[in-house]
Amino acid sequence: MPDTFRELRVELGDRSYPILIGKGLLGSFDLTPYVSGRTVMIVTNTTVAPLYLEQARNSFPGCQVDEVILPDGEAFKNWETLNLIFDALLKNRHSRKTTLVALGGGVVGDMAGFAAACYQRGVDFIQIPTTLLSQVDSSVGGKTGINHPLGKNMVGAFHQPRSVLIDTDTLQTLPQREISAGLAEVIKYGLIREPDFLAWLEGAMASLTSLDSEALTEAIYRSCVCKADVVAQDEREEGLRAILNLGHTFGHAIETHAGYGNWLHGEAVGAGMVMAADLSKRLGFITDEDLRRVKSVIVSAGLPTGVPDDMTSDHFMNLMAVDKKNVNGQLRLILLRSLGDAEVTDRFSPDALADTLSAFCH
Ligand SMILES: NC(=O)c1ccc[n+]([C@@H]2O[C@H](COP(=O)([O-])OP(=O)(O)OC[C@H]3O[C@@H](n4cnc5c(N)ncnc54)[C@H](O)[C@@H]3O)[C@@H](O)[C@H]2O)c1
Ligand SMILES: O=C(O)C(=O)C[C@@H](O)[C@H](O)[C@H](O)COP(=O)(O)O
Ligand SMILES: [Zn+2]
């Protein structure tokens, strides 16, 4: 067992769980204390399996370890792929005491978690996130699910993992574009709640994009602390948790419009956060200088600040009409009150929103 790793907890009463962060944990950290029976089903994909599956198996000594290897990509986050997990569980006669293990990025994590929430009405699962985005965000908090062609993450469940194991070494094989995508969610924490972290990120961005291990570990740790605290206060998004959706109302519209291809989730969220900041400025919440800072940190992370060429204001309005935060048909958005302070609100003028959309759409 490696002796240097950082640990924090998501405090949810009897469903509390640890997040373990460090180098070289995969395969050497014994995860059997988080396995209720003796069977494990590792859910991974065609890209991650050749890189990390054998190592992951070593984290479950003494267990029967089966695997299911899914096709790779956001476009496969759907019913058909989810069914492959149930097929594998039944073919291998996994019972209610089995533990699913998500080994991969957020797509694998969301699907494995949803399968765990549903299989035989609910079994345990463990998150082993291998992308920056999944290490700082999707592996923590228990949102699981799949996409629908008409809306992102529209079918799912809240189901918390038993533990989260983050091996920061896995980031060394991640393409640069995926590092940038992960940084969008990291920046999000700075913008919604952590002004000091935002300032730190502005200074550390070059180290982060060049995969400096110390800087990445710090960013992952601080992101997980922020997410764990928000989730502990509002597990089911009845209030506060919605701030984790900064940029997502616009971003999800972009992803759905793009057919869950071309645009990565983090890229869409990056552009969406600039749009949310633009609207916040039009409403007089933040200053021109604040908006400049938001754009600048997004650009420095290698993320887009514009929207797809073929997207119109009507596309946005139609896609945002099914957003899960809406109440009685009223759009609710996460806006910035200042850099480091966000709120969910339906109190914005439709004209200001229309102005933001026209400023971004062609
Ligand atoms: N549940 C939540 O709270 C939550 C939060 C944020 C995002 N999400 C969801 O997460 C998804 C995005 O996750 P993502 O950005 O991890 O994308 P992803 O899961 O598609 O992974 C990105 C790519 O990296 C590959 N990959 C994974 N690990 C690798 C490694 N170590 N080395 C090389 N390649 C590797 C994957 O196979 C994939 O091709 C979206 O579906 C989004 O909706 C969920
Ligand atoms: O954990 C949350 O809560 C989030 O909103 C985190 C987001 O980064 C993530 O993309 C999440 O999947 C969005 O959830 P949704 O409910 O808006 O689909
Ligand atoms: Zn997100």
From TrEMBL:
It catalyses: 7-phospho-2-dehydro-3-deoxy-D-arabino-heptonate = 3-dehydroquinate + phosphate. Its main location: cytoplasm. It is found in: Cytoplasm. Gene3D superfamilies: 3.40.50.1970, Dehydroquinate synthase-like - alpha domain (1.20.1090.10). Pathway: Metabolic intermediate biosynthesis; chorismate biosynthesis; chorismate from D-erythrose 4-phosphate and phosphoenolpyruvate: step 2/7. Binds 1 divalent metal cation per subunit. Can use either Co(2+) or Zn(2+). Residues 68-180 form the 3-dehydroquinate synthase N-terminal domain. One of its GO terms (molecular function) is 3-dehydroquinate synthase activity. Keywords: Amino-acid biosynthesis, Aromatic amino acid biosynthesis, Cobalt, Cytoplasm, Lyase, Metal-binding, NAD, Nucleotide-binding, Zinc. Zn(2+) binds at residues 185, 248, 265. Catalyzes the conversion of 3-deoxy-D-arabino-heptulosonate 7-phosphate (DAHP) to dehydroquinate (DHQ). NCBIfam families: aroB. This is 3-dehydroquinate synthase. It comes from Marinobacter lacisalsi. The gene is aroB.
